[in-house]
Amino acid sequence: MTRSEIGGRARNRLLLVNYHYVRDPGAAPYAGIHAMAPPAFAEQVGALARRFHMPHPDEALAFLRGQAELPGPSLLLTFDDGLKDHAWVAREVLEPLGLRGIFFAISRPLNEGRAAAVHKVHWLRAHLAPKIFRQRFLAALPREWRDPASDAELRRSATAMYVYDTVEEAILKFHINFRLPRQILDGVTSAMLAEEYGDEGAFCAATYLSADELAALHRAGHVVGAHGHTHAPFSALAAAELDAEMNECVAMIDRYTGGPPRWVAYPYGRERALPNDPEALCRRFGLDAGLTLQVGWNDGTGSPYVVKRINCNELPAMTAQPAAASARP
Description:
The chain is of the alpha/beta class. It is built from 15 helices and seven strands.
């Protein structure tokens, strides 16, 4: 490969960056919700827009499917879970800069007035002291699920996945997200939420985008993508369960945006959370791209159904080299 070919390849890259909560990190007494403060988010997006090409999602999709090139190192912003924070993100930060993002929504809050277990856990951990949450949560589980730390395999998997957490926190998160039966997790977290917060429907109204807000994102030119119904890892679902999850979510997006989604983000996003056959799943539901949380830049030659994406805390490490490479002749 010649030097010019190497330089061209470096320029023709796309990095997808993912955000969740964008709110005051000090709004809750504990760090169960790892939020990015709105001023910091706005400053970061402005800096990225000055440094990188920020394609519209349609331009990015054409690149990921091998149908177009990009004018330089490019960043596309994505937002998971359909959180209430994202209405402000779109209206106050992205749109004034002429940017459009992809917002991946789950359907259970709007369809049923019930929250995803992961967000109930986040809220509880943000409002209960860590030791109190751990004690109460584990004590509420059936006896056979109360001691995740004794499972050596779980420990290895947890520390490999949650590299930014302490060992104890990684084990608990892995136990919650990947090991506990979903019915048990949902029941325990709903009971704890009812005790600490109150009505789950009210929690949903305060936590997730409303139907009107989803429709407004679409009207403003953003993309609303699928993220499942309950936020369960797709790898944990039997075929019929996965189809039901996707049918609910696709129908919800169709209902509020006037068309089915073209993008899906797999909940949790790491390799062990992906569906067995991402391409088959996407084709079955008419989806053009599937997003993971497997770290890396995309060069347009990989499968559009297993797209690399990073969390926003991985930005500093991932953006230094490609930008420098693009400046070389």
